[in-house]
Amino acid sequence: MTADLIVCGLGPAGRVLAHRGLAHGLSVTAIDPHPDRLWSATYAAWEDELPAWLDPAAVGATVDQPTAWGTRCHRIARRYAVLDTPRLQDALDITDAEVVADRVVDLGRHSVSLASGTVLNGKRVVDARGIARSPALAEQTAYGVVVEGDHVDPLFMDWRPDNGAHPQAPPSFLYSVPLGGGATLLEETCLAGRPALDGAVLRDRLEHRLRSRGIELTGSEPVERVRFPVQGGRPGRRTFGAAGGFTHPATGYSVAASLAAADAVVTGASPWPASARAVHALRMAGLRALLALPPADVPVFFDAFFTLPPALQRAYLSGRTDLGGTAGAMRALFSALPAGPRRRIAAATVGIPVRSRIRMGSFIME
User: pTM to 2 decimals?
Assistant: First the structure.
Protein backbone atom coordinates (compact mmCIF):
# COMPACT_ATOMS: atom_id res chain seq x y z
CA MET A 1 0.00 0.00 0.00
CA THR A 2 1.25 3.47 -0.90
CA ALA A 3 0.52 6.11 1.76
CA ASP A 4 -0.39 9.65 0.78
CA LEU A 5 2.18 10.93 3.29
CA ILE A 6 5.12 9.32 5.06
CA VAL A 7 6.43 11.30 8.03
CA CYS A 8 9.87 10.42 9.39
CA GLY A 9 10.20 11.35 13.06
CA LEU A 10 7.53 11.77 15.72
CA GLY A 11 8.77 14.71 17.74
CA PRO A 12 6.46 17.73 17.83
CA ALA A 13 7.05 18.68 14.18
CA GLY A 14 6.53 15.18 12.79
CA ARG A 15 3.55 14.49 14.99
CA VAL A 16 1.78 17.73 14.04
CA LEU A 17 2.37 16.98 10.36
CA ALA A 18 0.97 13.48 10.71
CA HIS A 19 -1.97 14.77 12.77
CA ARG A 20 -2.90 17.45 10.24
CA GLY A 21 -2.45 15.05 7.36
CA LEU A 22 -5.06 12.80 8.95
CA ALA A 23 -7.32 15.80 9.59
CA HIS A 24 -7.21 16.55 5.86
CA GLY A 25 -8.17 12.99 4.95
CA LEU A 26 -4.74 11.70 3.92
CA SER A 27 -3.47 8.21 4.60
CA VAL A 28 -0.39 8.68 6.81
CA THR A 29 2.52 6.45 7.76
CA ALA A 30 4.68 7.72 10.62
CA ILE A 31 8.11 6.25 11.39
CA ASP A 32 10.10 6.65 14.59
CA PRO A 33 12.39 4.30 16.57
CA HIS A 34 10.42 5.09 19.75
CA PRO A 35 7.00 6.32 18.65
CA ASP A 36 5.47 6.08 22.15
CA ARG A 37 8.22 8.09 23.83
CA LEU A 38 6.73 10.76 26.08
CA TRP A 39 8.01 14.27 25.50
CA SER A 40 9.71 15.89 28.46
CA ALA A 41 10.77 19.31 27.15
CA THR A 42 8.90 22.52 27.87
CA TYR A 43 7.50 24.25 24.76
CA ALA A 44 6.14 27.76 24.57
CA ALA A 45 4.89 30.24 21.98
CA TRP A 46 3.41 33.66 21.60
CA GLU A 47 -0.30 33.08 21.89
CA ASP A 48 -1.06 34.75 18.56
CA GLU A 49 1.18 32.19 16.81
CA LEU A 50 -0.98 29.22 17.77
CA PRO A 51 -3.41 27.92 15.11
CA ALA A 52 -7.14 28.01 15.79
CA TRP A 53 -7.42 24.22 15.42
CA LEU A 54 -5.15 23.50 18.41
CA ASP A 55 -7.05 22.22 21.46
CA PRO A 56 -6.98 24.99 24.11
CA ALA A 57 -6.19 22.31 26.70
CA ALA A 58 -2.70 22.12 25.18
CA VAL A 59 -1.93 25.50 26.75
CA GLY A 60 -0.86 25.04 30.35
CA ALA A 61 -0.40 28.68 31.37
CA THR A 62 -0.34 32.16 29.88
CA VAL A 63 1.45 35.39 30.77
CA ASP A 64 -0.09 38.68 29.67
CA GLN A 65 3.06 40.81 29.55
CA PRO A 66 6.25 38.87 30.30
CA THR A 67 9.30 40.75 31.48
CA ALA A 68 12.61 41.00 29.67
CA TRP A 69 15.80 42.36 31.20
CA GLY A 70 18.88 43.55 29.36
CA THR A 71 20.45 46.18 31.58
CA ARG A 72 16.97 47.46 32.41
CA CYS A 73 13.43 46.16 32.62
CA HIS A 74 11.11 45.85 29.62
CA ARG A 75 7.49 44.70 29.46
CA ILE A 76 6.65 42.81 26.28
CA ALA A 77 3.22 43.82 24.99
CA ARG A 78 2.31 40.34 23.82
CA ARG A 79 0.61 37.38 25.48
CA TYR A 80 2.89 34.38 26.04
CA ALA A 81 1.65 30.80 26.18
CA VAL A 82 3.44 27.92 27.89
CA LEU A 83 2.26 24.62 26.46
CA ASP A 84 1.27 21.64 28.59
CA THR A 85 3.59 19.06 27.04
CA PRO A 86 1.62 15.87 27.77
CA ARG A 87 -1.64 17.48 26.64
CA LEU A 88 0.03 18.84 23.51
CA GLN A 89 1.23 15.37 22.62
CA ASP A 90 -2.24 13.93 23.23
CA ALA A 91 -3.89 16.73 21.24
CA LEU A 92 -1.83 15.79 18.19
CA ASP A 93 -3.69 12.50 17.85
CA ILE A 94 -2.31 10.06 15.26
CA THR A 95 -4.46 7.05 16.15
CA ASP A 96 -5.50 6.54 12.52
CA ALA A 97 -1.96 6.62 11.14
CA GLU A 98 0.12 3.55 10.44
CA VAL A 99 2.89 3.93 13.04
CA VAL A 100 6.12 2.02 12.39
CA ALA A 101 8.67 1.58 15.18
CA ASP A 102 11.89 1.53 13.17
CA ARG A 103 14.85 3.67 12.18
CA VAL A 104 15.06 5.41 8.82
CA VAL A 105 18.32 4.73 7.00
CA ASP A 106 17.55 6.26 3.59
CA LEU A 107 14.94 8.62 2.20
CA GLY A 108 13.91 8.88 -1.41
CA ARG A 109 11.34 11.17 -2.96
CA HIS A 110 8.67 8.47 -2.75
CA SER A 111 10.20 5.75 -0.58
CA VAL A 112 11.87 5.16 2.78
CA SER A 113 14.32 2.38 3.63
CA LEU A 114 14.32 1.21 7.24
CA ALA A 115 16.96 -0.44 9.43
CA SER A 116 14.89 -3.64 9.42
CA GLY A 117 15.24 -3.85 5.65
CA THR A 118 11.65 -2.80 5.01
CA VAL A 119 11.00 -0.32 2.22
CA LEU A 120 7.87 1.86 2.48
CA ASN A 121 6.39 3.77 -0.44
CA GLY A 122 4.48 7.01 -0.32
CA LYS A 123 3.25 9.77 -2.57
CA ARG A 124 5.17 12.22 -0.38
CA VAL A 125 7.98 11.68 2.10
CA VAL A 126 8.85 14.35 4.67
CA ASP A 127 11.82 14.28 7.03
CA ALA A 128 10.96 15.71 10.48
CA ARG A 129 13.73 14.03 12.49
CA GLY A 130 15.37 17.20 13.74
CA ILE A 131 19.03 18.14 13.35
CA ALA A 132 22.01 16.02 14.33
CA ARG A 133 24.46 17.70 16.67
CA SER A 134 27.78 18.84 15.23
CA PRO A 135 30.69 20.97 16.53
CA ALA A 136 30.19 23.14 13.46
CA LEU A 137 26.66 24.14 14.52
CA ALA A 138 25.70 26.74 17.11
CA GLU A 139 23.58 25.23 19.88
CA GLN A 140 21.21 26.36 22.58
CA THR A 141 21.71 24.78 25.99
CA ALA A 142 19.81 25.17 29.25
CA TYR A 143 19.56 23.73 32.74
CA GLY A 144 16.32 24.20 34.63
CA VAL A 145 14.42 23.10 37.70
CA VAL A 146 10.70 22.91 38.34
CA VAL A 147 9.63 24.41 41.66
CA GLU A 148 6.28 24.73 43.35
CA GLY A 149 4.84 28.21 43.80
CA ASP A 150 5.41 31.60 42.17
CA HIS A 151 8.95 32.45 43.19
CA VAL A 152 9.66 35.14 40.61
CA ASP A 153 7.79 37.16 38.02
CA PRO A 154 7.47 35.52 34.61
CA LEU A 155 10.71 36.28 32.78
CA PHE A 156 11.05 35.79 29.06
CA MET A 157 14.72 36.69 29.25
CA ASP A 158 16.80 38.08 32.13
CA TRP A 159 20.44 38.96 31.41
CA ARG A 160 21.18 40.60 34.79
CA PRO A 161 24.69 39.67 36.00
CA ASP A 162 23.78 37.93 39.28
CA ASN A 163 24.53 34.37 38.18
CA GLY A 164 28.17 34.37 39.33
CA ALA A 165 29.63 34.31 35.80
CA HIS A 166 32.87 36.15 35.09
CA PRO A 167 32.13 39.38 33.15
CA GLN A 168 34.14 38.09 30.17
CA ALA A 169 32.63 34.60 30.20
CA PRO A 170 30.00 33.60 27.62
CA PRO A 171 26.69 34.98 28.90
CA SER A 172 23.49 33.20 29.89
CA PHE A 173 20.06 34.37 30.99
CA LEU A 174 17.29 33.28 33.34
CA TYR A 175 14.02 32.07 31.84
CA SER A 176 11.17 31.75 34.33
CA VAL A 177 7.65 30.73 33.33
CA PRO A 178 4.58 29.18 34.97
CA LEU A 179 3.77 25.65 33.89
CA GLY A 180 0.26 25.53 35.31
CA GLY A 181 -0.92 23.78 38.44
CA GLY A 182 1.23 25.98 40.66
CA ALA A 183 4.57 24.90 39.17
CA THR A 184 7.26 27.23 37.79
CA LEU A 185 10.20 26.47 35.53
CA LEU A 186 13.42 28.31 36.43
CA GLU A 187 15.99 27.82 33.69
CA GLU A 188 19.47 29.20 33.01
CA THR A 189 19.92 29.38 29.25
CA CYS A 190 22.77 29.82 26.82
CA LEU A 191 20.90 31.36 23.90
CA ALA A 192 23.40 30.29 21.23
CA GLY A 193 27.03 29.26 21.36
CA ARG A 194 29.61 27.49 19.28
CA PRO A 195 30.42 25.74 21.54
CA ALA A 196 27.50 26.36 23.87
CA LEU A 197 27.83 26.35 27.65
CA ASP A 198 27.47 22.90 29.14
CA GLY A 199 24.87 21.86 31.65
CA ALA A 200 27.18 21.83 34.68
CA VAL A 201 28.14 25.46 34.13
CA LEU A 202 24.51 26.45 33.68
CA ARG A 203 23.48 24.51 36.81
CA ASP A 204 26.05 26.37 38.90
CA ARG A 205 24.96 29.70 37.46
CA LEU A 206 21.29 28.97 38.09
CA GLU A 207 21.91 27.98 41.70
CA HIS A 208 24.05 31.08 42.27
CA ARG A 209 21.45 33.34 40.68
CA LEU A 210 18.58 31.89 42.68
CA ARG A 211 20.53 32.10 45.96
CA SER A 212 21.26 35.76 45.25
CA ARG A 213 17.49 36.29 44.94
CA GLY A 214 16.67 34.43 48.13
CA ILE A 215 15.53 31.19 46.49
CA GLU A 216 17.08 28.04 47.94
CA LEU A 217 16.70 24.73 46.14
CA THR A 218 16.34 21.44 48.00
CA GLY A 219 18.01 19.29 45.35
CA SER A 220 14.86 17.23 44.88
CA GLU A 221 13.35 19.45 42.18
CA PRO A 222 12.63 17.89 38.77
CA VAL A 223 15.37 18.87 36.31
CA GLU A 224 15.09 19.89 32.66
CA ARG A 225 18.18 19.77 30.42
CA VAL A 226 18.19 21.31 26.96
CA ARG A 227 20.68 20.99 24.09
CA PHE A 228 19.88 21.35 20.40
CA PRO A 229 21.33 23.07 17.31
CA VAL A 230 19.83 26.42 16.30
CA GLN A 231 21.13 26.12 12.75
CA GLY A 232 21.65 23.35 10.22
CA GLY A 233 18.11 22.77 8.94
CA ARG A 234 17.58 22.34 5.19
CA PRO A 235 14.64 24.42 3.94
CA GLY A 236 12.60 22.64 1.28
CA ARG A 237 9.45 20.67 0.51
CA ARG A 238 10.85 17.40 1.86
CA THR A 239 11.87 18.59 5.33
CA PHE A 240 9.82 20.01 8.19
CA GLY A 241 10.30 21.47 11.65
CA ALA A 242 13.87 21.87 12.85
CA ALA A 243 15.07 19.58 10.06
CA GLY A 244 13.50 22.01 7.59
CA GLY A 245 15.02 25.19 8.99
CA PHE A 246 12.02 26.20 11.11
CA THR A 247 14.13 26.88 14.22
CA HIS A 248 14.40 30.58 14.94
CA PRO A 249 18.13 31.14 15.57
CA ALA A 250 17.48 34.07 17.92
CA THR A 251 15.12 32.14 20.22
CA GLY A 252 15.49 28.44 19.44
CA TYR A 253 11.72 28.15 18.97
CA SER A 254 10.34 25.94 16.21
CA VAL A 255 7.20 24.25 17.56
CA ALA A 256 4.84 27.20 16.99
CA ALA A 257 6.12 27.67 13.44
CA SER A 258 5.53 23.97 12.77
CA LEU A 259 2.02 24.12 14.19
CA ALA A 260 1.22 27.16 12.05
CA ALA A 261 2.65 25.75 8.80
CA ALA A 262 1.38 22.17 8.99
CA ASP A 263 -1.95 22.68 7.21
CA ALA A 264 -0.35 24.42 4.26
CA VAL A 265 2.30 21.72 3.95
CA VAL A 266 -0.08 18.77 4.01
CA THR A 267 -2.27 20.40 1.36
CA GLY A 268 0.69 20.74 -0.98
CA ALA A 269 1.83 24.33 -0.50
CA SER A 270 5.51 25.07 -0.15
CA PRO A 271 6.57 26.17 3.35
CA TRP A 272 9.37 28.11 1.70
CA PRO A 273 8.16 30.87 -0.61
CA ALA A 274 10.84 33.35 -1.66
CA SER A 275 9.98 35.66 1.23
CA ALA A 276 10.51 32.88 3.79
CA ARG A 277 13.89 31.99 2.31
CA ALA A 278 14.98 35.63 2.47
CA VAL A 279 13.78 35.92 6.08
CA HIS A 280 15.69 32.74 6.93
CA ALA A 281 18.86 34.21 5.44
CA LEU A 282 18.42 37.42 7.42
CA ARG A 283 17.84 35.50 10.64
CA MET A 284 21.01 33.49 10.06
CA ALA A 285 22.87 36.75 9.53
CA GLY A 286 21.44 37.87 12.87
CA LEU A 287 22.73 34.69 14.51
CA ARG A 288 26.21 35.33 13.17
CA ALA A 289 26.07 38.86 14.57
CA LEU A 290 24.85 37.62 17.96
CA LEU A 291 27.65 35.05 18.17
CA ALA A 292 30.20 37.80 17.44
CA LEU A 293 29.11 40.09 20.27
CA PRO A 294 31.33 40.24 23.37
CA PRO A 295 29.50 39.36 26.61
CA ALA A 296 29.07 42.95 27.75
CA ASP A 297 27.26 43.86 24.52
CA VAL A 298 24.61 41.13 24.72
CA PRO A 299 22.34 42.81 27.33
CA VAL A 300 22.72 46.10 25.45
CA PHE A 301 21.65 44.34 22.24
CA PHE A 302 18.47 43.06 23.89
CA ASP A 303 17.77 46.44 25.51
CA ALA A 304 17.69 47.84 21.98
CA PHE A 305 15.53 45.00 20.69
CA PHE A 306 12.89 45.29 23.41
CA THR A 307 12.55 49.02 22.88
CA LEU A 308 11.46 48.44 19.28
CA PRO A 309 7.75 48.97 18.54
CA PRO A 310 5.74 45.80 19.28
CA ALA A 311 4.94 45.30 15.59
CA LEU A 312 8.65 45.15 14.72
CA GLN A 313 9.39 42.81 17.62
CA ARG A 314 6.62 40.51 16.43
CA ALA A 315 7.84 40.63 12.83
CA TYR A 316 11.33 39.51 13.80
CA LEU A 317 10.27 36.90 16.33
CA SER A 318 7.35 35.39 14.42
CA GLY A 319 7.17 36.71 10.85
CA ARG A 320 8.62 33.69 9.07
CA THR A 321 7.48 35.03 5.70
CA ASP A 322 7.43 38.74 6.61
CA LEU A 323 10.46 40.00 4.73
CA GLY A 324 9.56 43.67 5.01
CA GLY A 325 8.86 43.43 8.73
CA THR A 326 12.00 41.40 9.45
CA ALA A 327 14.21 43.78 7.48
CA GLY A 328 12.52 46.76 9.15
CA ALA A 329 13.10 45.28 12.61
CA MET A 330 16.77 44.62 11.88
CA ARG A 331 17.24 48.10 10.44
CA ALA A 332 15.60 49.74 13.46
CA LEU A 333 17.58 47.57 15.87
CA PHE A 334 20.85 48.41 14.18
CA SER A 335 20.06 52.13 14.37
CA ALA A 336 19.13 51.87 18.06
CA LEU A 337 22.42 50.27 19.12
CA PRO A 338 25.41 52.20 20.43
CA ALA A 339 28.31 52.72 18.03
CA GLY A 340 30.48 49.89 19.37
CA PRO A 341 27.96 47.07 18.95
CA ARG A 342 26.95 48.52 15.57
CA ARG A 343 30.52 48.23 14.30
CA ARG A 344 30.87 44.68 15.57
CA ILE A 345 27.55 43.61 14.07
CA ALA A 346 28.42 45.20 10.74
CA ALA A 347 31.76 43.39 10.66
CA ALA A 348 30.10 40.07 11.54
CA THR A 349 27.32 40.26 8.96
CA VAL A 350 28.87 41.89 5.89
CA GLY A 351 29.24 39.23 3.24
CA ILE A 352 26.35 37.03 4.42
CA PRO A 353 24.67 35.80 1.21
CA VAL A 354 21.07 36.98 0.81
CA ARG A 355 19.12 36.60 -2.43
CA SER A 356 18.50 40.31 -2.67
CA ARG A 357 20.68 43.15 -1.44
CA ILE A 358 18.99 44.60 1.62
CA ARG A 359 20.22 47.72 3.37
CA MET A 360 20.36 47.36 7.12
CA GLY A 361 21.08 50.74 8.63
CA SER A 362 24.42 51.85 7.25
CA PHE A 363 25.70 48.50 6.00
CA ILE A 364 24.71 46.10 3.25
CA MET A 365 24.29 42.34 3.47
CA GLU A 366 24.66 40.67 0.10
Answer: 0.91
